[in-house]
Amino acid sequence: MRDLKGISVGYWVTHGLFSLWMLFTAYAEVAIAPARAEFVQMGIPDYLRVELSIAKVIGVLVLLLPVSPRLKEWAYAGFAINLVSAVVAHLAIGEGAAKYMWAVVAALLLAACYFFWRKREVRTYEVGK
């Protein structure tokens, strides 16, 4: 049981940090001019910027609310695709590491989230047996 408590703490800490990070970036992409300008500089259409922000908010809700494991898997995959695409977009226009490291760090945090989620799912299943 003690192991499950540690896994749960890791789960909520990583998911809390990642969720705050994604909610802030979703807000910034819509409301902060320099963030909007980054999308223009990369040649990403305005509608896609808004769509990505909405998808981030929905993804955060899916990660934090009690929904089916399959839906959570899709949210993790969506965030992974989003973060890898961010790194690729910055590299494609020749920007340095300072511009895309936020996405790399967020991806590492996402990996930790996924690790704790999987551990928690397995432990919860074992305890419930």
Largest sheet: number of strands, sense, barrel closure: none
The secondary-structure class comes to mainly alpha
Q: Into which percent range does the helicity of residues fall?
A: over 70%
Question: Counting H and I runs of at least 4 residues, what is the number of helices?
Answer: 5
Output mean pLDDT: 91
Brief characterization of the structure:
The protein is an all-alpha fold and 129 residues long. It has helices at residues 2-31, 33-42, 46-64, 69-92, 97-128. Helix 1 (2-31) crosses helix 2 (33-42) and helix 1 packs antiparallel against helix 3 (46-64).
Protein topology:
Elements: H1 2-31, H2 33-42, H3 46-64, H4 69-92, H5 97-128
Helix pairs in contact: 1-2, 1-3, 1-5, 3-4, 4-5
What do you see in this structure?
The model has no long low-confidence stretch (mean pLDDT 91). The longest helix has 32 residues, at 97-128. This protein has one domain (2-128). It is built from 5 helices and no strands. The protein is 89% helix and 0% strand. Helix 3 packs antiparallel against helix 4 (69-92) and helix 4 runs antiparallel to helix 5 (97-128). The protein is mostly helical.
Keywords for this entry:
single chain, 129 residues, mainly alpha, 5 helices, elongated
